[in-house]
Every structure is written in structure tokens, then in C-alpha cells.
Design goal:
Elements (H helix, E strand, L loop, with lengths): L1 H7 L18 H6 L7 E10 L9 E10 L2 H11 L4 E3 L13 E3 L1 H7 L5 E7 L4 E8 L1
Antiparallel strand pairs: 1-2, 2-6, 3-4, 5-6
Helix pairs in contact: 3-4
């Protein structure tokens, strides 16, 4: 009986977090991803994990699909991928759709990462597309 009373105050059942809106502004991406050149377009979603009512750091995340418009930047990304690249399909926020599989490696992650934060990068060099998963927590 005590457990039921305690659980009753935990909030409404079935309440899902809001779906983040797809954004196309580039400044937040430029702050978190490097070596993609100045000519690019992006579709991205992001959010924060945590509760502002609780003291301490909160985590933030971004999923982005970047279309790199500079051939030299795509070549540099391909070089950073290196021979150890493996094909993988990144799991991104549903609002972005399925970006398809890309090539990923620790070298590529390090090449595009801006501290602080963790970046996983997936390159589709033939399309000039870079999928980025950014997390800071």
C-alpha cells in the first residue's frame, strides 16, 4: 500500500518527452564540429538530458546530417577516415530520418571533434555527407 502511494506521485503515466524540432542553423554545429569547411548545409536536432531543478551538470546531445559543400573538406575527411574505417549505420533522432550507412573510425571522430564533448562521425564520401552524433555530459 505504501508503494502504491509513493508511485502515485511520480507523474502522469505515458508522458513522452517532446520531439525536438529539426533545425538548419549552422552556428551550433560550427561550435561542436570542425574541419567541415565553411560551405555546408545541415539538418540537426538536439536536446538536454537532466533536470534543471537538480544541481549539477546537465548533458546535451546533437544528431546532425551535414552536407559538406567543399571538395577539399570532403577529401580531408576521407583522409582522416584512414584505412581502419568500418561501415556502420548511425542511430539518429527519428525526426532526421534514416541517413544511411557511412564509414567511421576513431581517426575521423578525432578529426571533427571539438572539445569538450564526444563526437561519433560517419562519412558518406561519395555524397559529401557527414553524420555527426555529439554528446557532452
Amino acid at each position: 500500500m505504501v508503494i502504491a502511494a509513493a508511485l502515485a506521485g511520480c507523474g502522469p503515466a505515458g508522458t513522452a518527452p517532446p520531439v525536438p524540432a529539426v533545425r538548419e542553423d549552422t552556428a551550433p554545429i560550427q561550435k561542436r564540429v570542425t574541419n567541415i569547411g565553411d560551405r555546408f548545409t545541415v539538418r540537426w536536432v538536439g536536446g538536454a538530458l537532466g533536470d534543471e531543478r537538480v544541481p549539477g551538470p546537465n548533458a546535451s546531445w546533437i544528431d546532425a546530417v551535414v552536407t559538406v559543400g567543399d571538395a577539399a573538406a570532403v577529401s580531408a575527411l576521407r583522409a582522416a577516415l584512414g584505412p581502419s574505417g568500418v561501415e556502420a549505420r548511425p542511430a539518429v533522432a527519428a525526426a532526421l530520418g534514416d541517413p544511411g550507412a557511412g564509414m567511421t573510425s576513431a581517426g575521423l571522430d578525432a578529426f571533427v571533434a571539438v572539445e569538450p564533448g564526444t563526437v561519433r562521425a560517419f562519412l558518406q564520401p561519395e555524397r559529401g555527407v557527414l553524420v555527426v552524433k555529439y554528446f557532452r555530459g
